[in-house]
Amino acid sequence: MKERAYRPLPCEEEVDKGKDKTKERDKRSLILDAATQVFSQYGYHEARMEEIATCAGVGKGTVYEYFSSKLDLFQQMIRSGLDFYSQRIKYTMGQKDDLRERLRHLLILHFCFIHKYRDRARMIFGDHASINEEVVRWLISFREEKEARLAAIFEAEQQQGKIRPVDPQLTAQILVGMMASFVYPLIYTETEPDIERMANEVIDILFLGISCHRE
């Protein structure tokens, strides 16, 4: 088989700069980071476990100690990315008291995450044949959990008289749908998006609607 040169992609920022990546407990994270780079560069079907091992700086056998197959590694890579996204969402939503600001920061985080990690997002939304039913169900439950969290926030705001009496669940579904509609544009855009402007306009539409006149 013809050897191909691995072209490194930009790495994600490390949360803990001082951690010792040579320790046993860090090898799984190293392999997941390497898998993100190799899968995003070659796609699921063309990526090879040998390349992932080389990128991670471990032996091929070590990869199989942590992941039973390439499919298992691919799926765990997706789940780890969404776990990280979910943690950031929860943190962001708890930082502001004003609903408008909380939602604006939620949108900014969402847009930034999709744009910054668009290689991983492209695999999640484009490599459906590589995701089995269990992971699809997990992705659906992830979306439902996000909608439920937002619905609870809208309901609490209603009880405090801060927003008018609308269906909290439907409002949450509308917002999550608006967020999802930006995924493909952010993945495939060749220019740097104006994320602040996008977030502000979505919030204006959500809070003010599109009508010029108030009835």
Radius of gyration: 20 Å
Structural class: mainly alpha
**What oligomeric state is this?**
single chain
Q: How many domains would you count in the coordinates?
A: 2
| Name of the top-level CATH class of the largest domain | Mainly Alpha
**Spans of 5+ residues with little confidence (pLDDT < 50)?**
1-23
CATH topology of the largest domain, what is it called?
Tetracycline Repressor, domain 2
Q: Helix coverage percent of residues? A: 55-70%
Number of helices: 10
Mean pLDDT figure: 82
CATH superfamily of the largest domain: Tetracycline Repressor, domain 2
CATH architecture name of the largest domain: Orthogonal Bundle
Report the count of strand segments.
0
State the distance separating the first and last CA atoms.
Answer: 70 Å
Molecular shape: elongated
Described by strand count, sense and barrel closure, the largest sheet is: none
> Which series of helices and strands comes N to C?
HHHHHHHHHH
**What amount of the residues lies in strands?**
under 5%
Brief summary of the model shown:
Helix content is 66%, strand content 0%. The protein contains ten helices and no strands.
Topology:
Layout: H1 27-42, H2 49-56, H3 60-66, H4 70-93, H5 99-116, H6 118-126, H7 133-159, H8 168-180, H9 183-188, H10 195-208
Helix pairs in contact: 1-2, 1-4, 1-6, 2-3, 4-5, 5-10, 7-8
